[in-house]
Amino acid sequence: xxxxxxYILDRVFQMLPILFFIxxxxxxxxxxxxxxxxxxxLDPSLSPEELSARSEALGLNQPLYIQYFKWVGGLFxxxxxxxxxxGRPVEEVIMERIPATLLLMGTSLIISVSVGVLLAVISAIxxxxxxxxxxxxxxxxxxxxxxxxxxxxxxxxxxxRLEWFPVGGMSTAGxxxxxxxxxxxxxxxxxxxxxxxxxxxxRYTRSxxxxxxxxxxxxxxxxxxxxETAVVVRHGxxxxxxxxxxxxGIALPSLIGGxxxxxxxxxxxxxxxxxxxxxxxxxxxxxxxxxxxxxxxTLVGGLLAxxxxxxxxxRVNIGG
Amino acid sequence: MDRVLLAxxxxxxxxxxxxxxIRAVDGVSFNLREGETIGIVGESGCGKTxxxxxxxxxxxxxxxxxxxxxxxxxxxxxxxDIAELEPRGREVRKIRGKEISMIFQExxxxxxxxxxxxxxxxxxxxxxxxxxxxxxxxxxxxxxxEVGIPKAEEIIDMYSFQLSGGMRQRAMIAMALSCNxxxxxxxxxxxxIDVTIQAQILELLKxxxxxxxxxxxxxTHNLGIVAEMVDDIIVMYLGRAVEQGNVxxxxxxxxxxxxxxxxxxxxxxxxxQRRRLPVIKGSxxxxxxxxxxCMFQPRCDKAIKSLCDxxxxxxxxxxxxxxxxxxxxxxxxVDFYGP
Lengths: 320, 339
Description:
The complex is a heterodimer.
Chain A: H1 4-32, H2 48-58, H3 64-76, H4 90-95, H5 98-125, H6 130-144, H7 147-161, H8 179-212, H9 216-224, H10 228-240, H11 242-257, H12 260-265, H13 271-280, H14 284-312
Helix pairs in contact in A: 1-14, 5-6, 5-8, 5-10, 5-11, 6-8, 7-8, 8-10, 8-11, 9-10, 11-14, 13-14
Chain B: E1 4-16, E2 21-33, E3 37-41, H1 48-55, E4 63-73, E5 79-81, H2 90-95, E6 100-103, H3 107-110, H4 117-128, H5 133-146, H6 152-155, H7 165-177, E7 183-187, H8 195-212, E8 215-220, H9 223-229, E9 232-237, E10 240-246, H10 247-252, H11 257-264, E11 316-319, E12 322-324
Parallel strand pairs in B: 3-8, 3-9, 6-7, 7-8
Antiparallel strand pairs in B: 1-2, 1-4, 4-5, 9-10, 10-12, 11-12
Helix pairs in contact in B: 4-5, 4-7, 5-7, 7-8
């Protein structure tokens, strides 16, 4: 039996080929995508020679594999590249967007996990009751409606009609920073994101719980004289959390990578918005940086989920 | 004479599905005296497990106890009707695990895999007794020793998947005994266990019962077990008791054609070799079929035409204390013995 530390180390080494593979694929995809990184610069006054000189200076005229190895070489020296459009290091561009994304995604993730699991427990205590049917229907509807639509709907109702909340952004223009102002801006996008995620967490946890509630040890727990709430929470939930943990592992990269659609709809200045604009601008180094970070955290999320499985269920022996 | 601890009168537990109602238990009555054991036997699906679960109001959805009485005499002489209690209510939860405990067929799946054995025993102890964790743990260790688990101080911190089948069932028994119940319902306690260990578990149950003066309901399909373990026996078929009485009477002189057929189909030592074991012809009818008359009539070789297939027999006292639900023994109704 290997130790936990050894297991984590092994998994980290397994990540390297995956990271390499995904970075190659992304690099090639961006290269063959229509539109040249300098297209955004296109200034009628620039002569072809001048353009070519710029291209040369940025290293865009070199063969693809040279460009890739230069980029990888940069990674080992701790830099993610140079933003073509912004003229600044990519890591700097991304870092300044991370706080906004972390705030939005962290808030919604905490709300959605706690509310989603809580509602699932309430549903499982009285399965197929009126409340359970209502929640099941509502969350199904929530998962079926696209996020951008919910976002726009929320803006229309709460900002446009009722004027309770700002339409977008993180702060009111021309105003000094205030915590209350930030909360007002955070409310709508985090509510929409939370609602969407609650639906997912609710449905996965509920179906996991209902499956576990048919197990023999649940009958044993009831035969002891435990209340139904204690049976569900103490004996059901811990056995039913595996799908929830998987979902959490998948959600982890979004803490850094953001949710592009919702961020764009609410003009939230986070990493998600950065990715979308970088794509429009063909600012490939920025995109590569974002992709690399997201991929990395996706892998970390999977690893963390595996570790949590083992903590929840002693039968899972992750060393073995 | 010992007094009646539990009196079940005309118990009816039905399952309500969208298209059909299944009468899993349909009129079962018996009296269980203090310190005695009653055996409920029958094929799979005859309602014996549901009878046991009904006594604790543990019938799974969409089943429900819809009729009859389950009268339990409490320590303070009060008599309480469990059939009237709300399945999720506080009153019945105070009975579960404290007055009446239950152990199940599959010790592997009946223990929660994510908690240690000790954790699960202590949970039950502390639910019904206001004592400290340390004290409860000591009690759990002595319970585990009592049921014959060696090195109880170590086993208590193990998970069910780390134990053998026999050890798991011993742990289940320890858990069931943790609050000194006056009645233990054992639902096929040895069916899922190695044959070599079965006898040990039964011996243990018998020993504990005598030591603790506990009553027991033993649910099984194994007639061999019943003969050694029980005082009274109920033979069930499709939710009904077809024959019941003192175990010696029923074994020496089985009355119902179903009981007779069951007895014939037990292999015996000393039987002439190569004898074909008699089987009961046909199989249990589909619960959806609308069977009229006696439930056993389609499989019965003594069925009386235009009587058994039209009218349902009621339980009659054929001999003293020996009841049978069959027209071969007359038609008169009896007032079943009350508590």
